[in-house]
Amino acid sequence: MDALIILAIIIFWFTFVLAIRHFSVYLKEKRMLLGHISEVTESDLFEKKVKKRNRKAELIQKLTKYADEFADLGQRINFFSENQDVKNWLRKSGNPYQLTVERFQGLKIFLAVVGFFLGMLSFIIGLPFSQYAIVFNPLIGYFLPIFLVKQQAKKRQEALRLELPDFLDTISTSLQAGVSLDQALREVIRFFDGPIREEFSRFNHEIDLGVQRETAYRNLLDRNDNQEFQSLIKALLQGLKLGVPIATTFKVQSEDMRQIREEQVKELAAKASPKVTLVTTFVVAPVSILMVAGLMILNLIYGENSLLDLLK
Q: Does one domain contain both 86 and 99?
């Protein structure tokens, strides 16, 4: 009987592992098939991400609609969040949740009020450190939107910087093949994701609406403060005025960006060496010395021919 139970357990685990393996193979083949279908039908996965992001933005807008009641108060209490600064942060972050300046200003006050009531609730319940929560929760609620928007703007500008050299190489190759700039932008951005696509899609949309090319370029400058991206747009503006071939501009900018990035990596590596030396000198070396000294002391006390034996 025991043998049958053991055999049944072994068979169960064997079939379980086999099922997991086949299920993973099924998921892998499903992903490959979906990718093939997307390529054949030219479906845009980026548009699906945008729709999903828009649904998330709509949900957050519904959750933050009460912040509009505090908009006027938030614009008066604008410590570390002037209206112009907030406008720049939202623009450079891409404003994924479609927040207005007024709603943002109201949101920080709304979260501060919520934080205060949560602190009071924790104090009434008697949670640990609840007396500090009454003070710090409103401060956290006030500064949380400011911190998140600034981080989002920084993250977006960094993503733009990382994608830019590959984007420029692709555009330069298309232009050298005889494709116009507008057509190259429309075709190439389909293969990119993130802020580089969002910015140039908006640029193309402005051109379609009749906005002058120089104005559209300046709008790109206003929405982004990344130094490399601004250098590219300024070069395009200069080329537009002086008649410099655009393909050459993209190629030169791409080479310059890669060289600048290489220099930045070397600079970071050079700065890391003194930091490693400091850690080794003030952390690793003292700990190693203490360990060796401790072992020597233990050996003198408890080892062979120890001090205790000599004193006896």
A: yes
